[in-house]
Design goal:
Number of strands: 5
CATH class of one domain: Alpha Beta
Number of helices: 34
Shape: globular
Structural class: mainly alpha
CATH architecture of one domain: 3-Layer(aba) Sandwich
Largest sheet: 5 strands, parallel
Strand order of the largest sheet: 2-1-3-4-5
Radius of gyration: 31 Å
C-alpha cells in the first residue's frame, strides 16, 4: 500500500472519526468499558493510545469536557512527549475558550513534534483509533420526514402554514439525505483502509529506529486486527475474492510475525503473553473462517507451517490465557466455524460467567446467539424434535434481546428477524405453502427488518430486502413481497447466489395472481422472467416454469398466451421451452407462436386498461402527480420498476402517475393525449437512455411536452430528467437538474422531488438541491 502524501498531523480530533457525531449511550458505554479494560491490561506501548481515545470519547459526553481535560493532563504528565494527547488537549482548551492554556501546550507540542519516535507512536495511536467500529447515531430519517410532509400535503383543508411546514419537511429530508453521502458501512471500510496505511507507516518508522521486538510485535498484532476487520466489512460489501484473499494472507503474515517474535523471548510479561495468545487464536480463527477464499500458493513458508498444525496454536493460546475473554471469544468462533455449535456454546457460557456485563461482553452474547440459532437450523434440517428446536430458538431469542439492548448492529437485527421467523414455525410442506404456527413472530420479524432499513447509518443490504420478500407472503402481502425482492435483485445485481430469492419472487407472483386473478400481473411477471433470461439465469426461469406447471397450470397457460400476444420475439426462448412436450401445452399455441414470429412482435399497448384523462384546467389540484415520457424500448422498466416504486411504495406515500401505456385512451391522437396528461400532471418525468437519441418520434414528443409544461398556467411545474443509462443529455434538458439512475435507482430522491409542492408561491432555497448528479470525478461508492 502506498504511503500517504499528506503531512503528519498529531491528534485524534482531526481524523474524521465518526464519533464527531455523538454516539448513543449504549455505544459509549460499551467502548468506555472496553477501553478501560485495555488501558489496565495492555502493554505499556498501547496504553497511551487507549487513554487518548477514552479522553476523546469523554469529550462528546454531556458535561464530559472537564473529564477529558483532566484525563489528557494526567496522560501528558506521565508522557510529556505524547503528541496525540498534546494536540487533543490543545483542541479541548480552544473549545473551552482558554486560548492561553492552548498556547502553552502548543509550545510543548512544537518542541517534540519533530522527534521521529514520537511521530511513529503518534501515527500508530491514530491507526489504533481508526481500527475501532465507531457508529453514527442519526436521529432523523429522511423517509420519516417525507411521510410527515406527505400527510400535511394531503389534508383536506390545506392552508398556507401547512404547505410551508410540509415543504420545509421535504427540504429538511433533502438536507439529511445530502449531509451524509455515505453510510457508516462505507465509512468503516475507509477507516480500516486508513488504519492499515498508518500502521504500516508507523511500524516502518519503528523498524528504522531499531525499536524493541516487543513494541513492534504489539503494533503488528493490531495491524493484523485492522486487516481482519477490513476483510469483515469488505465481505459484507461483496468485495472481489482475490482482493480479500491478499488481505487475509497479509493478516496471517502479521500474526505469524508476532507469534515467532514473542515466542523467542524467554520471559514475557503478562500483557505480552496475552498478545501472544491472542495472535495464536486469531491466526487459527482467521484461517478457519477464510480458508476457502485464501490461496495457499501465496503464503510464506512460516504461515504454511502454522496452517499445518492449527491445533498446537489453539492449545498454546488456551494454555497461556485460559481465562482471557478475547481468547475465549475467538476460540468459540473457531468451534462455530467448524459447526461444533454445542462446544462453542460451552465456551461462550464460560466467557459470560466470567464477564456477565452485557455491554462489556456483548461479543460473547452475540456469538452465543448465533451458535444457538445455527444449531437450531441444523436440528430443523435433521427434522429433530420440535420441542428441542424451540428450546434453542428461545435461547437465541433471549441473547438477541440482550444484543439489541447493548450494541445493536445491522447483523444483530438481521439475525434477530431470522430467529423470529423460525420461532413462527413456518410450514414447509410445500413450496407454495405460507402457513405458520405463530403469526406474531412474523410481524415482529418484519418490524425489526423495517427498523434496520430506517437506521440512517446502515447500508441498504440486498439480504434485508430478500428476507422481507420471504416473510411478507405469510401475512398475504404478496405485492410488498414482489417489490422487496425486486429491490434485492437490483441491489445484488442478480448475483447467482440469489436463486432462492428469485424463487420467492416467482412464488409471490403466482400466489398474488391466484388470489386476485389480475391478468395485468402476467405482463409484470413476463418482464421479470425476461430480465432473468437476459442475465443468463436460465435455470431460475426453468425452475419457475416447472413450479407453475405443477401448482398453477392455468397461470402458466395464461402467461404463455400473454408472451405470444405481446412480446413473442422478446420471449422466444421462454416460449420455446414451454412448448416442449413435458409442459403439455395446447397445439393452437404453437401455431399462434409461429404466426407471431413471422409477423414480428406486437407492442403491448395496455397494461392495466385505459383510464380516461379528464381536463381540469380550472381545478386547483392536479389529477396526476407526474407524467412519464419515455422511449418505447424503455416501456417495460417504466411499467414494472418505476410505476410500482411510486404508486405502490407503502401505505402512506402513494403517487398517482399518468403512464401512456395505461392511461391514454385508445384511438385518441397521441399528441392530444400528451397535452391533456401534462395539463393534469404536477410534474414531468423524462426517462433518458441511448434509445432516446435513436428515436426521432421520442425527440419530437419530448420537445412538445417540455414546451407544454413551460407554457402551462402553473409556471412552477417541474421537469425531472431521470438518466437511466449513460447517454447524451438533450440541449433542451441541460438547464434541468437530473437524477442519476445509472449506478443505482435512487427512489428516495425521486419521491422527495415529487413530494415537494412546486406550485406554491413559497421561496424555498435548496428545494431541488438533492437532485444534482455526481460529477464524473466523484466516487459513487
Amino acid at each position: 500500500m502506498m504511503a500517504s502524501k499528506e503531512s503528519f498531523k498529531p491528534g485524534l480530533f482531526d481524523l474524521g472519526l465518526n464519533i464527531q457525531k455523538k454516539l448513543s449511550n449504549n455505544d459509549l458505554n460499551i467502548d468506555r468499558k472496553q477501553f478501560t479494560y485495555h488501558s489496565e491490561n495492555d502493554p505499556s506501548y498501547i496504553k497511551p493510545a487507549i487513554r487518548n481515545m477514552l479522553a476523546v470519547q469523554s469529550f462528546y459526553i454531556d458535561t464530559g469536557r472537564t473529564r477529558a481535560r483532566l484525563m489528557l493532563e494526567e496522560l501528558i504528565s506521565e508522557h510529556p512527549n505524547e503528541l496525540n494527547a498534546l494536540a487533543d488537549l490543545i483542541y479541548v482548551y480552544k473549545e473551552m475558550g482558554r486560548e492561553k492554556d492552548a498556547d502553552r501546550y502548543k509550545s510543548q507540542l512544537d518542541s517534540h513534534k519533530n522527534n521521529p519516535l514520537c511521530q511513529a507512536r503518534s501515527i500508530l495511536g491514530q491507526a489504533n483509533a481508526l481500527t475501532y467500529d465507531w457508529a453514527d447515531d442519526h436521529n432523523k430519517n429522511p423517509k420519516f420526514l417525507l411521510k410527515d410532509s406527505w400527510r400535511l400535503f394531503n389534508l383536506e383543508d390545506n392552508h398556507t402554514e401547512q404547505l410551508i411546514k410540509a415543504n420545509n419537511l421535504v427540504v429538511e429530508a433533502y438536507k439529511v439525505l445530502n449531509a451524509i453521502p455515505e453510510t457508516a458501512h462505507e465509512k468503516k471500510i475507509k477507516a480500516k483502509e486508513k488504519a492499515i496505511e498508518k500502521f504500516e507507516k508507523g511500524i516502518g518508522k519503528l523498524q528504522e529506529l531499531n525499536c524493541s521486538k516487543e513494541e513492534i510485535s504489539t503494533w503488528k498484532h493490531n495491524l493484523a486486527i485492522a486487516r481482519s476487520r477490513l476483510d469483515t466489512w469488505r465481505n459484507r460489501e461483496g468485495d472481489n475474492i482475490d482482493t480479500r484473499s491478499d488481505n487475509c494472507i497479509k493478516a496471517l503474515e502479521d500474526h505469524s510475525y508476532v507469534i515467532d517474535s514473542l515466542t523467542s523471548i524467554e520471559k514475557l510479561e503478562k500483557p505480552l503473553q496475552i498478545y501472544l495468545a491472542k495472535s495464536c487464536i486469531f491466526f487459527v480463527q482467521l484461517y478457519t473462517s477464510r480458508k476457502d477464499n485464501i490461496s495457499n500458493n501465496h503464503m510464506s513458508e512460516s504461515v504454511k507451517k502454522k496452517v499445518q498444525d492449527l491445533e498446537s496454536l489453539e492449545s498454546k493460546a488456551i494454555r497461556l490465557c485460559p481465562d482471557d475473554n478475547i481468547v475465549l471469544q475467538r476460540y468459540g468462533r473457531i468451534k462455530s466455524n467448524r459447526q461444533q455449535y454445542l462446544e462453542a456454546i460451552e465456551i461462550y457460557n464460560k466467557s459470560i460467567e466470567m464477564f456477565p456485563d452485557k455491554y462489556f461482553n456483548w461479543f460473547s452474547y452475540a456469538s452465543r446467539r448465533a451458535a444457538y440459532y445455527f444449531h437450531s437450523k441444523k436440528l430443523i434440517d435433521e427434522k429433530s424434535d420440535e420441542a428441542e428446536i424451540n428450546k434453542y430458538l428461545t435461547l437465541a431469542y433471549m441473547d438477541g434481546e440482550v444484543c439489541l439492548q447493548s450494541k445493536c448492529t445491522q447483523y444483530c437485527m438481521f439475525q434477530m428477524a431470522q430467529i423470529c421467523f423460525e420461532r413462527a414455525m413456518p410450514i414447509r410442506n410445500s413450496a407454495m405453502s405460507f402457513g405458520c404456527k405463530n403469526i406474531n413472530f412474523i410481524y415482529e420479524a418484519l418490524e425489526i427488518l423495517h427498523e434496520t432499513l430506517n437506521k440512517r447509518d446502515i447500508k441498504k443490504d440486498a439480504k434485508i430486502y430478500a428476507e422481507l420478500g420471504k416473510y411478507y407472503p405469510f401475512i398475504s402481502e404478496y405485492r410488498k413481497s414482489i417489490e422487496s425482492i425486486k429491490t434485492a435483485l437490483e441491489l445484488n445485481k442478480w448475483n447467482e447466489n440469489y436463486s432462492e430469492c428469485f424463487s420467492h419472487l416467482c412464488n409471490s407472483f403466482m400466489c398474488f395472481y391466484d388470489e386476485s386473478k389480475d391478468r395485468n400481473l402476467l405482463s409484470e411477471f413476463r418482464y421479470m422472467l425476461k430480465e432473468a433470461k437476459q442475465r443468463e439465469c436460465d435455470k431460475w426461469v426453468t425452475d419457475a416454469l416447472k413450479t407453475m406447471k405443477t401448482d398453477f397450470p392455468e397461470m402458466l397457460s395464461n402467461l404463455i398466451e400473454n408472451m405470444i400476444e405481446w412480446d413473442a420475439r422478446g420471449c422466444e426462448d421462454i416460449v420455446k421451452e414451454v412448448l416442449q412436450p413435458e409442459f403439455s401445452v395446447r397445439d393452437d399455441m404453437r401455431e399462434r407462436f409461429e404466426m407471431k414470429l413471422q409477423e414480428g412482435s406486437n407492442q403491448e399497448s395496455d397494461i392495466n386498461g385505459p383510464a380516461e384523462i379528464q381536463a381540469s384546467e380550472t381545478s386547483e389540484s392536479f389529477k396526476y402527480d407526474f407524467f412519464v415520457l419515455h422511449s418505447e424500448k424503455d416501456k417495460e422498466w417504466v411499467n414494472f420498476m418505476l410505476r410500482p416504486q411510486l404508486e405502490e411504495y407503502d401505505d402512506v406515500i402513494n403517487f398517482r402517475g399518468c403512464f401512456p401505456s395505461r392511461d391514454f385512451i385508445l384511438g385518441d391522437r397521441i399528441i392530444d393525449s400528451m397535452e391533456k396528461g401534462i395539463k393534469n400532471s404536477c410534474k414531468l418525468l423524462i426517462i433518458l437512455t441511448p434509445n432516446n437519441n435513436c428515436d426521432k418520434e421520442m425527440q419530437f414528443y419530448k420537445n412538445v411536452c417540455i414546451h407544454s409544461m413551460i407554457e402551462s398556467k402553473a409556471k412552477e411545474k417541474t421537469v425531472i430528467p431521470i438518466v437511466l443509462k449513460n447517454c447524451e443529455i438533450p440541449q433542451i434538458l441541460q438547464t434541468h437538474v437530473p437524477i442519476d439512475f445509472t449506478q443505482k435507482n435512487d427512489w428516495d430522491r425521486l419521491r422527495m422531488a415529487l413530494t415537494v409542492n412546486m406550485d406554491s408561491t413559497l421561496e424555498l432555497e435548496q428545494k431541488m438541491s438533492a437532485l444534482s448528479c455526481k460529477g464524473p470525478d466523484e466516487d459513487e461508492n
